[in-house]
Amino acid sequence: SGGGLRAHIACLGVLSEMKEQGLLDAVTYLAGVSGSTWAISSLYTNDGDMEALEADLRHRFSRQEWDLAKSLQKTIQAARSENYSLTDFWAYMVISKQTRELPESHLSNMKKPVEEGTLPYPIFAAIDNDLQPSWQEAKAQETWFEFTP
């Protein structure tokens, strides 16, 4: 968890080795927070094909071009949202420049492999340690959110 791009690459490495060792097929759940959720999302986007995922990642990191216009458009779109944060800017301008990717996947895209049991059930987590619920005066520390298909 944590570290964004570092966690993404590290989790992809773990998933790749698990697949190579035949362990990924035995896993019932995959959970991640931060960049590891990007890795889990990539796994589902590629239908669990780690070789294709690795080839795609190598291709994206070897290209020199970056679609600034598309990243800027996504950033402006996010800025119009009532829950815009610096995380949106970071994702669309910094991470997309490094990975050459703007993920377009949705939890609903994962429904079929989850129902068929072809991939582990994903649990995407987020932590908000600045959340201030109306029923509590002090900040709630490390409020944990989970998202699943």
Automatic annotation (TrEMBL):
GO annotation, biological process: glycerophospholipid metabolic process; phospholipid catabolic process
One of the entry's Gene Ontology molecular-function terms is: phospholipase A2 activity
- Keyword Cytoplasm on entry: no
Task: Give the domain of life.
Answer: Eukaryota
Q: Does the keyword Disulfide bond apply?
A: no
Which UniProt keywords are listed? Hydrolase, Lipid degradation, Lipid metabolism
> Where is the PLA2c domain positioned along the sequence?
1-149
SUPFAM superfamilies linked to this entry? FabD/lysophospholipase-like (SSF52151)
A Pfam family matched by this chain, by name? PLA2_B
Report which reactions are catalysed by this protein: a 1,2-diacyl-sn-glycero-3-phosphocholine + H2O = a 1-acyl-sn-glycero-3-phosphocholine + a fatty acid + H(+); 1-hexadecanoyl-2-(5Z,8Z,11Z,14Z-eicosatetraenoyl)-sn-glycero-3-phosphocholine + H2O = 1-hexadecanoyl-sn-glycero-3-phosphocholine + (5Z,8Z,11Z,14Z)-eicosatetraenoate + H(+)
Read off the PROSITE patterns from this record. Answer: PLA2C (PS51210)
The record, for PANTHER family, names: CYTOSOLIC PHOSPHOLIPASE A2, CYTOSOLIC PHOSPHOLIPASE A2 GAMMA
Write the protein's name: Cytosolic phospholipase A2 gamma isoform 1
Organism, scientific name: Macaca mulatta (Rhesus macaque)
Per UniProt, what is the name of the gene that codes for the protein in this document?
A: PLA2G4C
